[in-house]
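Chapter summary example.
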Amino acid sequence: MCGIFGVYNYYGDASAFRQRALDLSKRVRHRGPDWSGCVVSGNSIMCHERLAIVGIDTGAQPITDEGDKVILTVNGEIYNHRALEKELKKPTKFKTHSDCEVILHMYKEIGTDVCAKLDGMFSWALLDTREQGPGRLVVARDPIGITTLYIGRCSEHPETVFFSSELKSLNEDCDVIEEFPPGHFFDSETGEFHRYFRPDWWDGDRIPTAPVNYRQLRESLVAAVRKRLMAEVPYGVLLSGGLDSSLISSIAVREAARISAAAHSDTEDVDTRGARHFPRMHSFSIGLPGAPDLLAARKVAKFLKTAHHEYTYTIQEGLDAVADVIYHLETYDVTTIRASTPMYLMSRKIKSAGVKMVLSGEGSDEVLGGYLYFHYAPSADEFHKETVKRVQNLHTSDCLRANKSTMAWGLEARVPFLDKEFLQVAMNVRPQDKLCSKDVMEKAIIRRAFDVEFADAGFTEEELKQGAYLPREVLWRQKEQFSDGVGYSWIDSLKECAASRVSDDAMAKARERFPHDTPETKEAYLYREIFEQHFPQPACLKSVVRWVPRTDWGCSADPSGRAQKVHEKAY
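The structure predicted for these 571 residues follows.
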């Protein structure tokens, strides 16, 4: 992934604004430290900060067509680029080896219908100047919002549109800023957003009735991991030792071994260069000394025979990083900041080791109802509706965390659990099969799907020959939220720090100081205070959404997993 920034139909002299545009683009250069590009066309400017992972020798952006009339800047990965290249009807000469260039050529053939054809994570902007006038701007974001994207305007000049991967490139020049809605494209011809992602499961009131097909569930996740091994640089897996990251790691190890052992074929639709170039899997974990996640990750890494890298941090190092984390994440949400700080620290260590891409386990808890508060769901229907809602809002929480805390250091995180085809399978399982209780552990269906001892899992003989995916004690380990798993004292220390820095008097006047979305705890107050130091403009508040459990289900409002009574070490 990369960083993108642009201005469409600038109200002044675009050539004179070029240096300002470069300065604003530079604010997201941490996302793409490998190269910078800028194209000015008429009164529009397209910028790009590149993180080179695929097509590293020729993939500089913005990319233009042969006549320099269509200009494309992309942040993302297109996993089905080879299949799409075969669909092109006209003979096409590609300028680069980038997986993203196919977007430009498909747009020229089918227009905005290209959005629905893309299988990947992406935010991109395309400027089409083939007609007279300012040209046509099309901006699109991936279906779930794995990549981050914002759109802004200056109310005095509504004809001008700004866009950027992050808020920090817009807040000084725009007084109206919106998070770009996932699964949509913006078209300057209409001036509106248009939804292109319309799966049948998106309507939460539509309750699926199909029983779980364990083999289909497993095979769709394996396929999701396999396609994400596309890379020309060293890569690895984030391994917390919990179910989600351990499953992704296990699948990645198996698929990388299969790919490297098979005969190479340029006709394969899935780009498998990563596994061929770097067959040995590296795994990474972080925590306070003695943290539950470190111990579990060590066990999984030994089982999978990965090249394992274990990092620790101190409470003070974590506290010192919080202000930087809030700057990079552009949120004051308590849950997101708690979990993002160790991920931010780990990402720096991973990047220093020469790794540019990692697979991660985000999304499973939303898709499968894995958070411990799902134990309190009043009915199967309500359980399902909550999973749909959580998936729809991932772009405000876990996707934002996974993207920005890693890209702060130029590290790309890919999330197989949010693959379109896996979602189509998993979100259409009847909710009765997903329910958890005192007798049924959360996310039981995915655990059973990868449990070689489960009779209905439908394993092939070839799969059984490879043995278990994971040790049973890992496959059936209770859910730990990342902010808990790195060490239970981490959250306790954050609360203590906030208590020492926010006075009782300040807390009593919180509603006066923060009338919008007033913080309810000292920890939330502290994060809000830091956020507004970085982003004082009122427009910056609109994109922030707080993550809270369903208190109307009778569970605690504290987002920590340990706040739920079903946790083995609840407080």
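To summarize the output: The chain has a mean pLDDT of 93.
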